[in-house]
Specification:
This protein is of the alpha+beta class and about 180 residues long. The chain contains four helices and nine strands. Helix content is about 30%, strand content about 40%. A hairpin with a 2-residue loop joins strand 8 and strand 9.
């Protein structure tokens, strides 16, 4: 499944990227976003024209059963491996459970473009589940659920980021708040 989502922010691309890389914003996201139970930056390495990072995520389980199968909450934890350079954030979300890792594809890119009015983020996701052919109907059902959840989660994250950027503009509040 491929998914494309666009969001606009009334801030420069540099400010948007700075917020996304800020540990305080990660804490804000974990505390405020209905999808995330945990967002924890693990490592960020500065590079000449960007950065490379790892972030641990744990989501609130949004699928508890799929047909006759129960899904353990551990299936909703992953580590983001991403690189940002020249307006492009490329990522791969790697499940923490080894038993799930080779069965889930979750990767993509976010392109950031600035114009006179702010920054547009265009996010491209590739998500798939590698399962036996006999489970294809369950796979399609799960992908449809993931699509709905991801669209809502991205829209909510964009609203939180826009609020964070607006608050950072206030002379009485700082980005680290």
């Amino acid at each position: 499944m491929e998914l494309v989502a666009r969001h606009r922010f009334e801030a420069s691309t540099a400010r948007v990227i700075e917020a996304l890389a800020c540990p305080a914003y990660a804490a804000h996201l974990a505390a405020s976003h209905s999808f995330f139970a945990q967002v924890e930056p693990l490592e960020q390495l500065e590079r000449a024209h960007g950065w490379q990072r790892r972030v641990h995520y744990r989501a609130q389980p949004f699928i508890t059963r799929l047909g006759v199968f129960s899904l353990p909450t551990e299936w909703f934890a992953w580590e983001e491996h991403s690189t940002y350079e020249a307006g492009l954030l490329q990522f791969e979300n790697v499940p923490l459970l080894a038993s799930v890792r080779d069965k889930v594809i979750n990767r993509g890119a976010m392109r950031f473009a600035q114009d006179a009015y702010g920054t547009t983020r265009e996010a491209h996701f590739e998500i798939d589940f590698r399962v036996a052919a006999m489970y294809r109907p369950l796979k399609e059902m799960a992908l449809a659920m993931v699509r709905r959840q991801l669209i809502g989660a991205l829209d909510e994250e964009a609203a939180l980021l826009a609020g964070w950027l607006a608050r950072a503009d206030s002379p009485t509040d700082s980005v680290a708040a």
